[in-house]
Structures are given as C-alpha cells and as structure tokens.
Amino acid sequence: MNSNETYFMNFAKCKDSKNPNFFFADDVIGTNNAIRYCQDCPVKIPCGQYAMNNNIIYGVWGGLSIRARAKLKREQKLNQIA
Ligand code: SF4
Asked: Can you give the residue range of the structural domain that contains 29?
C-alpha cells in the first residue's frame, strides 16, 4: 500500500470508529447512514479517490456507495472517449 495514497486515513472522521462494519452495510438504510456520516469528513475526497483508484468493490468510501463509484467510473470513461 502506497503511504502517500493512504495518508488521508490519519485525518479520517471514522479513524477511531468502534464499528468498521458500519461502512459495509448490505442494505439501503445502512448504506445511506454511512453516506450521511461521511458528508462532513475532512478527507472525503481523497477517501473516495482511493476507493476508485484501487477498484474497491465493497463499502462506502468518501460518501460514495459502490454503485455511485461505478457510475462515476462509467462517466469518467465516457468523458475520456468524448
Ligand atoms: S469519507 Fe467516510 S469512509 Fe472515508 S475516511 Fe471519511 S468518514 Fe471514513
């Protein structure tokens, strides 16, 4: 793991979370709760970028669900083609 790429984790709002499963809910309500929690995290952007750069297919990262990240990736690919 590239330490520059994960440096943001030192400042994560969830750093001391007692329940890491909170970000890996398998239902809509749990996922939305995690998305809401991330909204005021100071490292929301690099967290989401990290998940996208590393093709992480589980959980909420940077306030983005896996579906939201997949949609963003598709849009980025389309923008590269256009
Ligand atoms: S954006 Fe969410 S998952 Fe990412 S570091 Fe912040 S609180 Fe944790």
From this structure: 3-12+23-81
